[in-house]
Task: structure prediction
Amino acid sequence: MSSGTRIVLLGRQGAGKGTQCLRLSRHYVVPHISTGDMLRAAVREDSALGRSVEKTIGGGGLVSDELIIEVVRGRLNKADTQQRGYILDGFPRTVVQAEALDLIAQDLPLLGAVDLVVPRDLVLNRLSVRRVCRDCGANYTVTGVVRSPWSCDTCGGDVVLRDDDTPDAINRRLDLYESQTAPLISFYGGTQRLHEVDGVGSQDEVFDRITEVIDRAGGGS
Ligand code: ADP
Result:
């Protein structure tokens, strides 16, 4: 079995998955695999994949299980993942995807799924002030000072409002989370791989809670 951290981060949109995954990926030196970032990059590149998913993403819907499973299969076969492991963000999002992941990752089995728990009313507030770097995915919060153009402190990319961070698309994504993604809690709970972490608190507090769970699960080695 390969060493390294191999985890999935679950949680509502705006729960802080993206921010925590970036930190975890640096801390454990493991690739952060965000399916949302991969799809948005494909849209920017205007590739065949990007063209096929652009409308779905903009409207806050889910792309087909079949398509996203192939995208993740390709990514998990890359050398960095094979050697270091993976931190999956945004995948799996349905039970079908979770079952597929168990098959794809047979040689690199998942150590656990961390569910970052933040109530819906709190994430709605967070999403309304969220801005995201188009290039590296770093998250920012609007504080009232208008920064135009706004460049990312990490990579210099454009910091923008995501197309799907409009009120309608946000509500659609949160509804889909309840119907499609929340069942993953039972899926991983039923196989003793679920770790619930309180996602309310400072970024440092939440990070410490997550690393404690990962280290206990044996993913910090
Ligand atoms: P969020 O979790 O905030 O909705 P992501 O950045 O994870 O955002 O994903 C953005 C969009 O990409 C999703 O709304 C969906 O359209 C698509 N997407 C990403 N991952 C998946 C997935 N595993 N299954 C289906 N669609 C996905």
